[in-house]
Design a protein that fits this description.
mainly beta, 18 strands
């Protein structure tokens, strides 16, 4: 059975236990990755799904992200694991919690401003082109910077940011591409959804020609494609450094802060659909593509 259009997909996924083929436009998509978290299968010693560090390490300084990304095996200076675990389960959803660093991390130079978590499918799943989505509830608070994004298996850029939210303005959704050529990146800004008021589905349809973004099934914008290589999926709760895009947390920021991820899914095109349908911007929402990209 096919379910037409991203909006119908959103309604269906809230109740269904197994994802089914979907139609976007006249393209039929079939599931290739169904990433759930009950149980949470960390990638360890060649087995599992979710890797809990970046390929380049446990920080993301290029984004001016002040968090140290830890897991239960993280240790300092060859010592025993500190048991720092930013991951937990909440009604089957993965909770990624950012919090103040413990005293044991003050020996690091520089000491981290926060600890947090990242999950990636770098070893377990990557794909070129398709439809990708995640159902997430974002935290609210200055300096918080949750994201669901895609990176290539080799080299950088390109990058596809399916969603980024600045915690002090959670009703503004950023969906961005970064290409190799100067000025090739684009950004869609959607003002129709408060990302902190509950779970929402953030999605991208990626083809050889274009990248189309969705929020809760509403088409928010289409931009030129920037990648022709397989990409893997990431989700993390970033914490801004002073002078970064979201700014640093302040006294009003709730710490600990939690990002909830219900699922992450990927689909591959598998022929055509009998009927054509596509999401459209919702009444009262707004979307605008622009060439300037802030990260």
């Amino acid at each position: 059975m096919l379910v037409s259009g991203p909006a119908a997909v959103y309604d269906r996924l809230r109740a269904a236990t197994e994802p089914r083929p979907i139609c976007i436009g006249n393209t039929r998509y079939e599931i290739t990755f169904d990433g759930t978290f009950a149980p949470f299968r960390r990638y360890e010693r060649g087995s599992g799904t979710w890797e809990t560090a970046f390929p380049w390490g446990r920080t993301n300084p290029g984004a001016r992200d002040a968090a140290l990304y830890v897991d239960r095996d993280f240790a300092v200076g060859g010592g025993p694991p500190l048991g720092l675990d930013p991951f937990s389960l909440s009604d089957g959803a993965l909770a990624i919690t950012a919090s103040a660093p413990p005293a044991e991390l003050h020996v690091l130079d520089p000491p981290p401003a926060a600890i947090s978590g990242v999950v990636t499918t770098r070893h377990a799943f990557f794909q070129r082109y398709g439809y990708f989505e995640a159902r997430i509830r974002m935290p609210r608070g200055r300096g918080l910077w949750p994201a669901f994004w895609m990176l290539p298996t080799m080299g950088y850029p390109p990058e596809i940011d399916v969603v980024e939210v600045l915690g002090h303005a959670p009703a503004r959704i950023y969906q961005t591409t970064h290409g190799r050529a100067k000025g090739s990146g684009r950004q869609v800004v959607w003002n129709g959804t408060d990302a902190s008021d509950g779970f929402h589905v953030y999605a991208v349809e990626w083809t050889s020609a274009a990248i189309t973004f969705f929020v809760d099934g509403h088409l928010t914008g289409t931009v030129p494609n920037v990648s022709d290589q397989p990409m893997y999926l990431l989700a993390n709760l970033q914490v801004g450094a002073p002078g970064s895009w979201p700014g640093a947390p302040d006294a009003s920021t709730p710490f600990p802060a939690t990002m909830l991820i219900d699922y992450v899914r990927a689909y591959r095109s598998a022929g055509t659909c009998a009927t054509s349908s596509r999401g459209a911007p919702a009444a009262g929402g707004s979307a605008a593509a622009r060439t300037d990209v802030a990260k």
